[in-house]
């Protein structure tokens, strides 16, 4: 594809995403020609489940470099973690085998200059960029990261066998898989979580085409929104409290937020306070799709964000394939 056409499509895809309340990062590498294109590709993005690539890579490299075989249980966990994006499998491997040291190992071997270990020790809060993820995949394929051929083939096999539905019931066909139906070879690792600064995070990353010719990374940060009305809950608030509910989630820099207040409703009539009771009233709060407590598999805002991801890929490659 000529660079002018690709640049035009990148601009149109980014504009379409903005119209849907989404900020998009895109990076594409043609491994055959060396052609590279990106949009906001150096903008930091949290990895969510894409960090599972680093967990698997570090463990398979450790196995080959130390000549210490992984247990069959660990191999099964790696398979589930990559094919079905199984969080329980990732948690077990992370806690058992070194946690953030696993990410540090991959950063060093692949020379990922814009990737950092999670600030809080949780794998899903690993930071990276679309450009760095393209560099990781490219290094995985050509062996620059030091992973032996057998380990690379294992990882590619798991990514090619990625399930349509994740272990928690979430639809993980968004982006590359649904956007490129004309490609016979697709190996992907998807990621998603809510909420960071009131936004959904989705990533669709992987390898496309015969011989894994293309490396494609798409990441979105989309405002959580419910056009047909926000789900809400009613909470009780003490009248004399100075820390009334805020208009944004507490801990907005953390991966998930359960609920956040919106407009305060008229006080609900209550019984006359006694000498021991504290005056109080009630407010309606917006309930965010906290992915630490819900799968969000039927969440309307999640579906909207997934559609944005797929639409971006379709704008980039309207023929349903990259070639």
Automatic annotation (TrEMBL):
GO molecular function, one term: beta-lactamase activity
GO term, biological process aspect, one: beta-lactam antibiotic catabolic process
Keyword terms: Hydrolase
Disordered as annotated region, ranges: 228-280
UniProt feature, compositional bias: Low complexity: 254-277
Keyword Hydrolase carried by entry: yes
Alphabetical list of Pfam families matching this protein: Beta-lactamase2
Domain Beta-lactamase class A catalytic span(s) in chain numbering: 75-219
Protein name per its UniProtKB record: Serine hydrolase
Biological source species: Rhodococcus spelaei
């Amino acid at each position: 594809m000529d660079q002018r056409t690709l640049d035009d499509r990148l601009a149109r895809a980014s504009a379409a995403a903005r119209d849907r309340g989404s900020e998009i990062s895109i990076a594409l590498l043609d491994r055959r020609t060396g052609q590279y294109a990106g949009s906001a590709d150096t903008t930091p993005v949290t990895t969510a489940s894409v960090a599972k690539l680093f967990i698997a890579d570090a463990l398979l490299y450790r196995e080959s470099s130390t000549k210490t075989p992984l247990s069959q249980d660990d191999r099964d966990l790696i398979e589930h973690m990559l094919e079905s994006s199984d969080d329980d499998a990732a948690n077990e491997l992370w806690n058992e085998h070194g946690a953030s040291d696993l990410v540090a190992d991959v950063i060093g071997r692949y020379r990922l200059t814009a990737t950092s270990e999670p600030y809080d020790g949780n794998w899903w809060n690993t930071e990276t960029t679309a450009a760095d993820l393209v560099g990781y995949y490219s290094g995985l394929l050509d062996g620059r990261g030091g992973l032996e051929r057998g380990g690379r083939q294992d990882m590619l096999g798991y990514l090619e066998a990625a399930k349509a539905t994740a272990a928690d019931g979430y639809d993980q066909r968004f982006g590359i898989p649904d956007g490129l139906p004309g490609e016979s070879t697709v190996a992907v690792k998807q990621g998603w979580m809510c909420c960071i600064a009131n936004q959904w995070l989705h990533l669709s990353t992987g390898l496309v085409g015969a011989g894994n010719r293309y490396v494609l990374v798409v990441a979105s940060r989309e405002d959580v929104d419910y056009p047909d009305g926000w789900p809400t809950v009613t909470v009780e608030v003490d009248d004399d409290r100075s820390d009334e509910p805020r208009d944004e989630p507490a801990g907005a820099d953390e991966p998930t937020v359960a609920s956040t207040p919106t407009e305060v409703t008229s006080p609900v009539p209550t019984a006359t306070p006694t000498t021991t009771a504290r005056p109080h009233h009630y407010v309606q709060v917006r309930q965010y799709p906290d992915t630490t407590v819900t799968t969000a598999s039927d969440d309307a805002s999640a579906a909207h964000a997934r559609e944005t991801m797929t639409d971006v890929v379709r704008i980039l490659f309207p023929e349903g394939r990259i070639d």
